[in-house]
Amino acid sequence: MTRARLTGAVLVLLAAAWAVDAERRASGAAGQATSLPFQVQVMADFESPWAMTFLPDGRMLITEKSGVLYLVSADAQQRTRVDGIPKVADEGQGGLMDVVLHPAFARNRFVYFSYSEAGPGGKGVVLARGVLADGEQPALQNVEILFRAEPYVDGDGHFAGRIAFSRDGHLFFTNGERQKFDPAQDPKATLGKVLRLRDDGTPAPGNPLAAKGFHPAVWSYGHRNPLGIAFDESGNLWEQEMGPRGGDEVNLILPGRNYGYPIVSDGDHYDGRPIPDHSTRPEFEKPKVSWNPVISPAGLIVYSGKLWPQWKGDLFIGGLSSQALIRVDIDGTTARKGDQWPMGERIREPEEGPDGAIWLLEDGRRGGSGRLLKLTPAGSGSH
């Protein structure tokens, strides 16, 4: 065989192998798609995407860890980089993180986002906002830094940085404990806390712990790495956080409560040191659901039920190490484990589209790009 024919044969074999792998990946779950209650459509690829949100017209804003924000068409086939994002520190778990619209976005065009930055004392997570100018070259204009975590510390882990608005217009913002343990119990620090702010980033009046000497923004404390928060229709605030070795949690966040970390956890330290279980200290708020083995939760939504009425009000969580989409069954203020569907890749973020489809962002940190997936009911023929 000549060199040219050999080269051609190799290329044919490589192309065939790539096609088979692409088909397997597009099935969403490494050959297990037939067991899934949804069909998976691959919409686009991004580099280490972190979060997404939908505009009122169906377009999306999608963040990439490196500090890039994209405005993406409703069919995900076109994207434009949005100018105006400040410089981010994207080492380790840091980078450009959450993106959320103001409840009155149609009027004020405010886009809120979080990112990690370097500063005096180390690094910290920042809450910022800008006005989305939607033209040929979209941009966030008049960008303001609204809140910085306190204190800044060394290290590149557990920034958290999730954002959610309550019905009354307050902004809830999560700060991880930055792998430093004790700040989660420190009343003066915002690390390891869920914060309640005005929409301008100032501490909301009436926060439950301010009179007890806590930082005035603190709403709840004793958290490790809260990577998802969302309100249900009844106004309950649900939160998930990545626990230590074992003990990932879903919590119902109540004002002024202490969730116990690092004093208690349903897991143990990574170096093997045990942590007492929640049941040993009833003064701390227990998780509604915990996992051991862990799921490594990322992102959180409360589902509307538009396309899957049986899941109305349930939580959907992305799974990183578990490479899964996780459903938690919610009944009022109680929760129990629902489904855990294998997706074949690390899932960074679930989000609900305007029509009730569930969209997923793959993490993409291992092996390059992370895909944007759209889930619709199995057999619906929807794309």
Helix and strand layout, with pairings?
Elements: H1 3-26, E1 38-47, E2 49-54, E3 60-64, E4 68-72, E5 79-81, E6 96-101, H2 105-108, E7 110-119, E8 122-133, E9 139-148, E10 160-165, E11 171-175, E12 193-197, E13 218-221, E14 226-231, E15 237-241, E16 248-253, E17 289-291, E18 297-302, E19 315-319, E20 324-331, E21 334-342, E22 347-352, E23 358-362, E24 369-377
Antiparallel strand pairs: 1-24, 2-3, 3-4, 4-5, 6-7, 7-8, 8-9, 10-11, 11-12, 12-13, 14-15, 15-16, 16-17, 18-19, 19-20, 20-21, 22-23, 23-24
Describe it for me?
The protein is mainly beta. It has one domain (29-377): Neuraminidase (6 Propeller), CATH 2.120.10. The chain is built from 2 helices and 24 strands. The protein has helices spanning 3-26, 105-108; strands at 38-47, 49-54, 60-64, 68-72, 79-81, 96-101, 110-119, 122-133, 139-148, 160-165, 171-175, 193-197, 218-221, 226-231, 237-241, 248-253, 289-291, 297-302, 315-319, 324-331, 334-342, 347-352, 358-362, 369-377. It has a 4-stranded antiparallel β-sheet, with no helix packed on it. A hairpin with a 3-residue loop joins β3 (60-64) and β4 (68-72). The longest helix is centred in the first third of the chain and has 24 residues, at 3-26. The protein starts with a helix and ends in a 6-residue tail after the last strand. Mean pLDDT is 91; it is low at 1-34.
